[in-house]
Specification:
Chain A: This is ABC transporter permease. The complex is a heterodimer of chains A (357) and B (373). Chain A has 357 residues and is mainly α. Chain A has one domain (76-351): MetI-like (MetI-like fold, Orthogonal Bundle). In chain A, 72% of the residues lie in helices and 0% in strands. Chain A has 14 helices and no strands. In chain A, helix 7 runs antiparallel to helix 8 (181-196). The longest helix of chain A is centred in the last third of the chain and has 32 residues, at 323-354. Chain B is α+β, with helices and mostly antiparallel strands and 373 residues long. Chain B is built from 12 helices and 8 strands. In chain B, helix 11 runs antiparallel to helix 12 (335-364). Classes of the chains: A mainly alpha (357), B alpha+beta (373). At the A-B interface, helix 1, helix 2, helix 8, helix 9 and helix 14 of A face helix 1, helix 3, helix 4, helix 9 and helix 11 of B.
Chain lengths: 357, 373
């Protein structure tokens, strides 16, 4: 009696295989599709089709409508973006925000990826930002830090965190790799302590506690202390990332450099760091993305950044019901920045993983 | 050189502490840890443990740590559930499920956690009042928090029942692995079932013994006058934090789960298929254990991060450890001491979490060399 082999089904086309190869697959696909369509329709309907845009009707027109009330943004966008900055000078704040965007875009271009060029871009950009915001030169009226707010302040804290934090991270990393045991151990202890604490507690310490421990002439404005705290936190994480990158450089490289008689500075600057930074690039971008999101925490110590100004924009009087729209607007701003940065990081990761290492 | 470096750092720290002592003394605040035994004079809005304004500071710190751990464990649990679902969706062979998982991760990962905390808190505080609230599976969502049905059981029997329930899950797993039991693995099924049954029986026993007399087992919240009576009230702050941490952390854990499944070698799966295992068995016996091993170390990092994220409770007024420390600094002026306690607390939590995970990692690590690929 012959036993016939089971006949193999013909291979279905790719899309069919992945969409409805088996009945279970088809059901799962349909359910997911239904969820996607439902959510997309609900969102679109809320945000566009039955939403109110203009300010002509005021809050009353919004309450009657079923959808989103974008009138609150039209009415309050200046508070959300610029905070308490003087009304007539807000173009400066806008220009300053643009500067930050430009230096971020510039530092994403491979042309600027040498130590000197990227440092120039950031130092020039930060000086330009500071001059625009603070004023007092070239006939611009002076605006104190207490009046800075909104998106401009968020970006400022981000730029300052990177600008102070990155060199600090390099120092910490080199100190931790030092051959002298006491130096590497103390630095290691500092890095690990900072990393195990929540960022909020570090910001709080720098904003509220540090003034007790500093002499009067060293205290400075709360904004600058908070920036220092945030930079310290950033550098502790970034130092570990760079150290990881350095460990990825083959030991023979450093030995060869030693054999050539290069000095410590030349070994680090010309051989180790360039290769280490290439290894550490994806993780570094990721760290920048995280620290951009975490600038939102300075609201805890009472700085008037974009989230705080958003709370102020809906928190007063007539617009209290429109909190969803304000949060959606702020979330959108964060999303644009963070999403494009992280997509760029993913692109870099793909690009570097193909090329030779 | 070394002496100079360490000396400079030490000098900065010591001079800072001296100046702080001087400044505080000028305000009439003495340094030292005596304040721990004074009563606080203020109360917290959320506490698992009994608290009153007369309790000393050290008890409030204990309450804070308990609250942080409580919030953390709920947040981690739900984040893990969400993350597992998202991660599985992203690794599934189904195109639509992949798309859904990816949309979720891209959306929630790119919005700061604190914004999400504020958002959910605003949503909850704008819910209808208890009078107009909708009932949903016995639970009621109101602007004063969520009212859920509760068991009519005293605190201690309930804690004992929870412990027994954990035992009912852990004991069979332990029996399956331990070397103390002198039986081959295949014959351990009976012991495992017995342990499970014993654990469940203990749970029932504790619940029945600890039941409040003359009351139904399940206490369902009902409307009385302007407010809801009965049941358990989950405060708005707590639920906002748990929802935000679960959704945001879920997006990150989803990526970790995906990475774990991607790290499982193709050869392992093909070997399992060629042995003729059913798809479900391949998943349970081969893919899941291997993926778990790959993701555990990264998961431990993420858990430490999420525990630290509970400090955002201060944004909405949940009295976690950090908020209680901040309040203590405001009220007592013992700045340096309180910051020291904060550091010690978080170091302890993080180090013990790391130690637990290292232990698990070592226990489940594959012994010997594996051929991967």
């Amino acid at each position: 009696m012959a036993i016939s082999a089971p006949s193999y089904p013909e291979k279905p086309p790719a899309l069919e295989l992945r969409f409805s190869a088996t009945p279970v697959q088809a059901v799962v696909s349909l359910c997911c599709l239904a969820i996607l369509v439902f959510v997309a329709w609900k969102l679109l309907n809320w945000a566009v089709f039955s939403a109110v845009f203009g300010t002509s009707g005021g809050p009353a027109a919004c309450k009657a409508a079923a959808g989103a009330c974008w009138s609150v943004i039209t009415a309050r966008w200046r508070i959300i973006l610029f905070g308490l900055y003087p009304y007539d000078e807000q173009w400066r704040s806008a220009l300053a925000c643009l500067t930050v965007v430009v230096i971020t875009v510039l530092s994403c271009m491979p042309t600027f990826w040498t130590g000197r060029r990227i440092a120039t871009v950031w130092v020039v950009g930060a000086t330009l930002y500071y001059g625009l915001m603070k004023g007092g030169i070239l006939g611009l009226p002076r605006v104190g830090e207490e009046a800075w707010g909104g998106l401009a302040l968020t970006l400022f804290i981000f730029v300052a965190t990177c600008l102070i934090g990155f060199p600090l991270a390099l120092c910490l990393c080199l100190l931790r790799r030092s051959k002298l045991p006491w130096i590497s151990r103390t630095t290691g202890l500092i890095i690990d302590t900072v990393r195990s604490l929540p960022l909020i507690s570090i910001l709080f310490t720098f904003a509220v506690v540090l003034p007790f421990a500093l002499p009067q002439w060293l205290q400075g404005d709360k904004l600058y202390r908070v920036m220092l705290g945030s930079a310290l936190f950033f550098s502790a994480y970034q130092a570990e990332i760079i150290r990881g990158g350095m460990q990825g450089v083959p030991a023979g490289q450093e030995e060869a450099a030693l054999a050539l008689g290069l000095s410590y500075r030349q070994r680090i600057g010309h051989i180790l760091l360039p290769q280490a930074m290439r290894n550490a690039l994806p993780a570094t971008i990721n760290q920048f993305v995280i620290s951009f999101k975490e600038t939102s925490l300075v609201i805890i110590v009472g700085l008037f950044e974009i989230l705080a100004s958003g709370n102020a924009a809906y928190g007063t009087g007539e617009w209290t019901f429109a909190y969803v729209e304000v949060y959606a607007f702020i979330a959108f701003i964060y999303f644009v920045f963070v999403f494009s940065l992280s997509r760029y990081g993913a692109y870099l990761e793909r690009r570097t993983s193909i090329g030779p290492r | 050189m070394q002496a100079l470096y360490v000396g400079t750092l030490g000098a900065i720290v010591i001079s800072g502490a001296l100046i702080a002592r001087q400044n505080l003394a000028a305000q009439g605040i003495t340094s030292g840890f005596d304040f721990l035994f004074k009563s606080t004079g203020w109360d917290v809005n959320f506490s698992l443990l009994p608290s009153s304004a007369n309790d000393p500071y050290w008890w409030f710190f204990v309450i804070g740590i308990a609250n942080t751990l409580f919030l953390g464990s709920f947040g981690l649990f739900f984040a893990t559930v969400v993350g597992t679902i998202i991660g599985l969706a992203r690794t599934s062979s189904n195109l639509m499920a992949q798309l859904l998982g990816r949309a979720y991760v891209d959306f929630f990962r790119n919005i700061p956690l604190i914004l999400q905390v504020f958002f959910w808190y605003a949503v909850i505080t704008h819910l209808p009042t208890p009078r107009n609230a909708q009932e949903f599976l016995g639970a009621t969502l109101t602007n004063r928090g969520f009212y859920v049905p509760a068991l009519n059981v005293g605190a201690w029997p309930l804690a004992a029942a929870v412990l027994a329930a954990i035992g009912a899950i852990v004991a069979p797993l332990w029996l399956g692995r331990t070397a103390y039991l002198d039986r081959p693995v295949g014959e351990r099924r009976t012991f495992q079932l017995l342990a499970l049954a014993a654990g469940l029986a203990l749970v029932l026993l504790f619940l029945l013994v600890g039941r409040a007399p003359n009351a139904p087992m399940l206490d369902i919240p009902t409307l009385q006058g302007l407010n809801l009576r009965g049941g358990l009230r989950v405060s708005s702050e707590f639920s906002a934090l748990v929802i935000a941490i679960a959704i945001y952390g879920g997006a990150y854990i989803g990526e970790i789960v995906r990475g774990g499944f991607k790290a499982v070698g193709r050869g392992q799966l093909e070997a399992a298929q060629s042995l003729g295992l059913a798809p479900l068995k391949i998943f349970v016996l081969v893919r899941l254990p291997l993926a778990l091993r790959a993701m555990l170390p990264i998961l431990a990092n993420q858990y430490v991060w999420l525990i630290k994220a509970t400090t955002m409770g201060i944004a909405v007024g949940f009295s976690d450890f950090f908020m209680i420390v901040a309040l203590a600094i405001n009220h007592s002026g013992q700045t340096l001491e309180a910051i020291g306690i904060l550091m010690a607390g978080f170091l302890t939590i993080n180090l013990s979490l790391a130690a637990i995970f290292n232990r698990i990692n070592k226990a489940i690590a594959l012994k010997g060399n594996q051929l991967r690929g």
